[in-house]
Design brief:
The complex is a heterodimer of chains A (about 425) and B (about 425). Chain A is an alpha+beta fold and about 425 residues long. Chain A contains 15 helices and 16 strands. In chain A, the strands form three sheets. Chain A has an eight-stranded mixed beta sheet, with helices on both faces. In chain A, strands 12-16-13-15-14 form a five-stranded mixed beta sheet, with helices on both faces. In chain A, strands 7-6-11 form a three-stranded antiparallel beta sheet, with no helix packed on it. Helices cover about 45% and strands about 20% of the residues of chain B. In chain B, the strands form three sheets. Chain B has a six-stranded mixed beta sheet with strand order 1-2-8-3-5-4, with helices on both faces. A five-stranded mixed beta sheet of chain B has the order 9-13-10-12-11, sandwiched between helices. Chain B has a two-stranded antiparallel ribbon with strand order 6-7. Chain B is of the alpha+beta class. The longest helix of chain B is centred in the N-terminal third of the chain and has 16 residues. Chain B contains 15 helices and 13 strands. In chain B, a hairpin with a 3-residue loop joins β1 and β2. The chains are: A alpha+beta (about 425), B alpha+beta (about 425).
Amino acid sequence: MKGTAITMNINKTEISVVKNPFLNESYTKISHKSGLDIYVVTKDFSMYYALFGTKYGSYDNVFRLEGESEYTEVPAGIAHFLEHKMFESEDGKDVFELYAQTGADANAYTSTDRTAYLFSCTEEFYPSFEILLEMVTKSHFTKETVEKEQGIIGEEIRMCKDRPNDAVYYGLCEAMYESNPVRIPIAGTEQSIALITPELLYKCYDTFYQMSNMALCICGKVNVEKIIEIADRMLLQKPQRAIEYKDYKDPPKVYRPRSVSYMDVSKPIFRIGVKNVSDAPEELGDLLCEVLFNKSESFYSELYENGLLISYYSYFQSSRSASYMTIGGDSDDPEKVYEKFLEYTKNIVENGISDESFIRAKRVLYAQALEVFDSSENITEEMLESVFRGTDFLDYAGLIDAITKTQVEKFARELFDESKYAMSVVYPKEMRPEEKV
Amino acid sequence: MNIKEIYLDGDVTLGVIDTKKFKFGFFSMNMIVEASKQSASDIALISRVLVRGSEKYPTIAEINKYCDSLYNLNFGFNSSVTGDNVCLKYTGSFLQDAYVPDGNTKVFAGLMSLLEELLFRPYLKNGAFFPEYVESEKIRLKDLILSAKNNKDMYAFRRCTEEMLGNINNLGYSEIIDKITPESLYQAFGRILDTAKIQAVFAGDFTPDTEKVLAESLEGMFSSRKTDVIFNPVKTADFVRQVDIKEITEEIGANQSRLVAGYTIGGGDEKYAAKAVFNEIFGGSPVSKLFMNVREKLHLCYYCSSMQIFYNGTMFVRSGISFDNLDKVLKEVDLQLEGMKDEKNITDDDLESAKKSLINNFVAFGDSVAPMGDWYLRRKISDLHTDLQLLIDQISATQKSDVSNIAKTVQPAIEYLLKGADKQGD
């Protein structure tokens, strides 16, 4: 199921075309002279979608550039703050107004390990593309615009603090990690963003928004030569400097086994995490998680039939910032769920997994891998994720297919150890000990 | 997007969107009856009980195993209320047969077979739904009703619409759910099977095999219905309702306050395009009057937007704010709304960018099976045309005067505030 690649040159720019005939999908990689790699998937969709990402997220609070002796430490929330500021141009015009003229819908997001700027449109793709390149490759920050944004992001932080799912997620990160910045909300705090200055924004921009640290993914009926022509015109060739990211050297054990908080919710919301510091590839973790925790397996069905679950989800997370397996949901008795989790994983380690579960899980992941190709948004997101991970997104289905039951069981034995487990619970505020009668 | 309609025995309307662009196909079916607190409660519970088991697959695990073996067959039942109608809705997405590696497994046939199994051979005891499944799902459903407050934005919106319109909750009502028995629920389900209006949609590769499976399944399930189907399409409000203006404040444990201001807005379905363009300019985009003024110019919030419920002639402005800024936000919202009543305050850029953005969204429907299918069913329940190109043309033809005329019909109805603690710091 693996893809094949053909390389050629167009106007002195190296192009590779990678195809996977089994999936009937392909993409073109443009290695632009500016240092930026541009990926194009040609699809017969009405919607064009472009995603311009940088390997820079809330995790990257301590860094230095090649040639610098000292590390720079920046306030929490600055990557997200910078994302907001990129929508203002030097002449004070809001970039959304420029996109409005071409009819494109634009947005951006910041995660723990990347920031991405995107637009979608059904016409005028190239003018919108130029707006995207212009906004991401130019920076302009002033004291006045920084102060204005502190008010807006302050309200965003307060909005997010009302979200129980955010609270249970960050509670789990605080339990699993002692110093890893994933335990801090992506937007920072009202105190931390008050420390952001234009100078710090420029420092972060100049460090992380180098073309060699970025990637651009496009899906639609675009012309590759036209993309190169626009990139040649708008992307400058500048010296690129290597970035040294701080390695938090997470120990394999969790920092503490529990995190508990209280909010105005109707039922306890929980999340169990299994910390992973190994180099296990993402697809192995995805398959193990699917084999054990999907809704056709006994872990879920027994808890559900015993009335211990109201809602439920599970997934394996593997990124530059953190890797873990997690299950979560609502339950009247999260500690009981945790007990069952302990029993279940112990049994898996001792007795392995069934052939039927293994085959079903592979079918599910194969189907999920194919479903990505039905959406231009999903295609570009998965492509960007793969590029930053150093993998090929056309290979995922084949990688899943190649995994053996033995490999899955071996990873289970390495992963499942109680010292790596933590649970975060958000209880209804009525259950706070001092409020009980 | 071309939609072919097929009328099947048993009063079943099937919309077919034939497209070979996708690896996954989509099938959805609405079973529509008149809404009441009782029927909404019954259907909310039925939607949960049906997926607990059937004769062939008596447990949730066995149903899920069947779906996983069919390459992640994704399906579910849920309940929705639109106007005076409540739907028991079945939705499924499936890997199309051309992409199944073994070349033999017929996934779509499996989806329809599962639907028939769950509807017509549910897991019973003594001629009624299995009591243990009914009782446990009653508990979960009531928990779900209570959990509405977990999402403060949605909770504020729901409370505002309840106070303004008295609309029925699609999850039902705890006091009614408590009284439902396995027998009463099974009887209610039987009535739905016999009398519901059935509207379905298929989006995907409509091969002769698929056509055969669809027709045989749907007619096999419903063609023997003898009882007359009762169906009242959801009518689009074409008048401005007179409502008493309310101001309501509730307190809840939240950091930020949520404002939801409700309005009535005139114009029937023939005004859909003008209303949509009005909404986009007023508060529907990042360059709208509300976003650019309340957020960007005055820095009073992170979000301030408007949305409409077209069929019942209402509009809502929503914003997350500090309580201290409430009066300033309301004043600016009023100012912007007042401004739109004069077409001189609508620039050429405002109009053209709103139209482009809306058309962008409609054209993009053809890029995804689920939105295509859902849009069709939403139009059908209101007995409205499903000619997407006609809507796009009407939006293109909208003028500033059309937009300002819509603005003139807008009347305030309610100010609902979910007051937070407005806590600073961590």
